[in-house]
Amino acid sequence: MDYRKIAEEIYEKVGKKENIVSVAHCSTRLRLVLADNEKCDAKQVEEIDGVKGVFSASGQIQIILGTGVVNKVYDEFLSISGLTGASTEEAKAAATAKQPWYKQAIKTLGDIFVPIIPAIVASGFLMGIMEALNFMVNNGFLNIDTSGSIFVFANLFGNTAYTFLPILIAFSAAKVFGGNPYLGAVIGMLMIHPNLQNAWTVATEGVKQTQSVWFGLYKIDMVGYQGHVIPVIIAVFVMCFIEKRLHKVVPAMFDLFVTPLVSVFVTGYLTYSIIGPIFVTIENGIIGGVQQLITLPFGIGSFIMGGLYSATVVAGVHHMYTVIDVAQLGLYGKTYWLPLASAANIAQGAAALAVALKTRNQKIKSMAVPSAMSCFMGITEPAIFGVNLRFFRPFICGAVGGACGALYTSIVGLGATGTGVTGIFGLLLCLNDPLNYIIMFLISAGVAFVLTWMFGYKDATEKVPEKKEPVKEIVEEEAAETECKEDIVYAPVEGTAIPYTEIKDEVFAAGTLGKGVGIIPARGEIVAPFDGEITMVFDTKHAIGLTSEAGTELLIHVGINTVELNGQHFTQLKETGAKVRKGEKILEFDNDAIKAAGYDTTVVVVASAPENVEIKKTGEVKELDEILKVY
Question: Does residue 483 surpass a pLDDT of 60?
Answer without folding.
Answer: no
